[in-house]
Amino acid sequence: MSSRVVHCEDALAWLEAAPVLEGCSLVTSLPDVSEFRLSLAEWKTWFTNTASLVLSRCSSDGVTVFFQSDITVDGAWVDKAYLVQKAAEARGHALLWHKIACRAPAGTLAAGRPAYSHVLCFAPTLRLRDPKDLRTDVLPSTGEKTWESGMGLDVCRMVARFVQTHTRSHTVVNPFCGEGAMLAAANAEGLSAIGIERSVKRCERARLQCVRADGQGWANL
Fold first, then answer.
1. End-to-end Cα separation, the chain, in angstroms
2. Quick one: which of 51, 85, 190, 206 has the fewest CB in 10 Å?
3. Which of 19, 24, 21 is nearest to 62 (CA)?
4. Which stretches in the chain have pLDDT values below 70?
5. Cα dihedral 86, 87, 90, 94 in deg (nearest 10)
6. Dihedral, CA of residue 99, residue 50, residue 160 and residue 17, to nearest 10
7. Quick one: pLDDT at residue 135?
8. Assessment of whether the complete model's pTM goes beyond 0.90
């Protein structure tokens, strides 16, 4: 039977204190520069170091998935997929797949950010031998979100199903879990879930978030 635990604490401190998470896969969306009092250069260093830390806690038979949206700062593009891949390459983790999830219909302009987000899956040892395992490269929608910065339902369920069918993981660990969309999707697919989030309000929501019985939206426990 799947379970859920949400730790209300700093995700970096939790990860640094944790060993390799055997039987687990990790899924996360790292915070944006707008959430820090750091220069862009300082935040890029923080971002790649944190991505490396998350990757380092993945078990040998698990995967690490990042959901990231690019930004522009002072007229220059910041490609978060590149930053994540930079950290993974240094760690020796292979990129299993890289999908694009549309935040707005193709051909339209999304306010504030690009009309898509990256979804990248890395693994230290797992490899996909059958091309069919790569599935769809472009997701037409992220799906319904619980909040603006969250992962959408379609992305969360796709990731949870991949973990369930292609790894030996029984638990999804979600640092910076926000309101718990990924935790709820993991539970809906029969996986246990552990979330780490320092916001008390978001932790409370993460403990109650669930996927509706019809699989078409969000509800509360």
1. 16
2. 190
3. 24
4. 110-112, 131, 133-135
5. -80
6. 170
7. 66
8. yes
